[in-house]
Amino acid sequence: MELLFLAHRVPYPPDRGDKIRSFHLLKHLSARAKVHLVAFTDDDRDLAHRDALTPWTATRTLVPRRKGQARAAIEALATGKPVSLTAFADPAVSAACADILSTHPIDTIFCFSGQMAQYLPARAQRVIMDFVDVDSAKFAGYADDARVPMAWMMRREARLLGAFERAISARADVSLFVSEAEAALFRGGGGKGRVIAIENGIDTVRFDPEAAFESVAAPRPLIAFTGQMDYRPNMEAVRWFAEDILPLIRRTHDATFAIVGRNPDPAVTALVSPHVIVTGEVADVRGWLAAASAVVAPLRLARGVQNKVLEAMAMARPVVASAAAAEGIDHDGTIRTGRDADAIADAVTSLLGNSADAAALGVAARARVIARYGWSARLAPLDALLGLDARRNAA
């Protein structure tokens, strides 16, 4: 079997949410098919990872994404398309896909993220479409909180992208989402064809408090948040926590809040204070997780399974998440949740005040992750989608 894998971001190294999922999908598929990768790069550092992808790919085409958001928006308004598509429209990617399809006997196209679905050909290869989240619903949520004219742009994006998502689902053999909640949302919004959930997993060998990693000298008690810090939901989450929740916690605990992640937006760096640390990119997030007395995920807008939560659970840290961030995770009560600032603050305060309870919660969280979220178990349903079960039976 030969497979074309399309990704809106090069799936290596697996150091952020979307790249973690795409990398493990690529790794799983490469053990079952000859994989040809076509992906965008965000910067020159991504190009340096071309050789690192060799164990999992037969060919690798990496295309730098140079188009700015302003140009993508102008193109979208001129063509009647969603910005999500024009931002990733590139003739070099179209040419690369056409070349691979014409020179290799591609059985299946695995398309990771809706932005790449514009490159699906009219030919009849099997198509597995991994939307991950319902992106159109995300933009609808943005519109609710935005002002004119941005609210108009967000509603336009939600409408046009939603129509595109539904059209692609009718073309695909199967549409994947990161959680059953996202899959149900898509079905309820008019998604076509077969729609199923393939959940995220976690590497519990790497994310293990007993693994070898560099420790971090940090003030205690420390409350940590991890994530890509130019991503709007993460930016809004840390601002809410720093401005509305941390002051409530500091009434009883002299706690420091660490915001750990690459590319912090100016709105994030503006939060720096004697009690708020913004690290920027770190070589290894595990040291910060291990140093944390509690890890928080106070996202108001969250889609699917949050890798940041799974990583903290695997590191046996006590986690406090918003109801939205916890929704996609089958945690079985091994994390604390809150629906508003007071509830989240109370949960964190309780953990900081009782180290034995916090440690026990962390141990239970790690056990839950090991039992429920191993990558091999999460991705096993892909074999049937690829037709491998039928081939094995025939053999």
Automatic annotation (TrEMBL):
From the Swiss-Prot or TrEMBL record, give the protein name. Answer: Sugar transferase (PEP-CTERM/EpsH1 system associated)
InterPro entries from the UniProt entry? Sugar_tfrase_PEP-CTERM_Stp1 (IPR017521)
PANTHER family associated with the record: GLYCOSYL TRANSFERASE GROUP 1 (PTHR12526:SF600), GLYCOSYLTRANSFERASE (PTHR12526)
Which NCBIfam families has this protein been placed in? stp1
**Pfam families with a match to the protein in the record:** Glyco_trans_1_4
State if Kinase is listed as a keyword: no
Which SUPFAM superfamilies is this protein grouped with? UDP-Glycosyltransferase/glycogen phosphorylase (SSF53756)
- Alphabetical UniProt keywords: Transferase
Task: Output one GO MF annotation.
Answer: glycosyltransferase activity
The top of its lineage is:
Bacteria, Pseudomonadati, Pseudomonadota, Alphaproteobacteria, Sphingomonadales
Any coiled-coil regions, as ranges: none
